[in-house]
Amino acid sequence: MYSELKGRTAIVTGGSSGIGKSIVERFHEEGMNVVFTYHSGDEDANKIVDDLDSGEASVVTMKCDVTKEQEIIDLVKQTIDQFGGFDVMVNNAGIQNDVRSHELSVDEFDKVINTNLRGTFIGTREAVKHYLDTDKKGSVINISSVHEIIPWPHYAHYTASKGGVKLLTQSMALEYSRLGIRINNIAPGSINTPINEDFFSTPEEKEGADDFVPMGYVGEPEHISNIAAFMASEQSVYITGQTIVADGGLSLYPSHRDPEYDE
């Protein structure tokens, strides 16, 4: 637990499931007010609010499409209006899909880039604006992927977006570091979340996924949310522009090959 987080406010995009949901829950456990977004599935989002919105800390949900600049601007404004400001911005919303590169349309490419990279940029930019306006030494935490450094066949658009997030994080962190604004990146490996459920659809596939990780098992969302809490706290005050890789050792392996071309 990080006592200094109690009473602070965080924004978490894509907070209705998976890693985002776990971060919302962990921040609330720390006594933070949390505003989280969802793109679809308001029932899941509202259930999280019903389950958590009690005691001193508030939990609020808002629908937001992170590919639309104005919706992120409105999200930040509404958070400031309701809570007087915020201290932590977590850009977590992201998508992925399996498409061989020669069959990948520009529209599909743009959709992933606009969600994963452009949305992260807008969220980071708007957080920095607020921190500058209020002279606040705030924190931005971007959720990337181990595939910012590991190539992945059939996911060229996804890896491009996450590689972009890595350098976006580093560049903006360097730009604002003298002002005490910290911008960092968490790169999860294989995590047991809805976005990855197709990889674990049978016991055999789950066993294979576990075996592929050097530590012998697929990670859980709380492995990432624990890091997010640390990165939001004063315990990480001297860390900026860094990627914390949480992958059970997955990035220690050589890059993936395309099984369709394996002999």
Automatic annotation (TrEMBL):
Keywords: Oxidoreductase. One of its GO terms (molecular function) is diacetyl reductase ((S)-acetoin forming) (NAD+) activity. It catalyses: (S)-acetoin + NAD(+) = diacetyl + NADH + H(+). It comes from the Bacteria. Its EC number is 1.1.1.304. GO terms for biological process: bile acid metabolic process. PANTHER family: OXIDOREDUCTASE, SHORT-CHAIN DEHYDROGENASE/REDUCTASE FAMILY (AFU_ORTHOLOGUE AFUA_5G02870), SHORT-CHAIN DEHYDROGENASE_REDUCTASE FAMILY PROTEIN. NCBIfam families: PRK07231.1 (NF005559). Belongs to the short-chain dehydrogenases/reductases (SDR) family. Catalyzes the irreversible reduction of 2,3-butanediol to (S)-acetoin in the presence of NADH. This is Diacetyl reductase [(S)-acetoin forming].
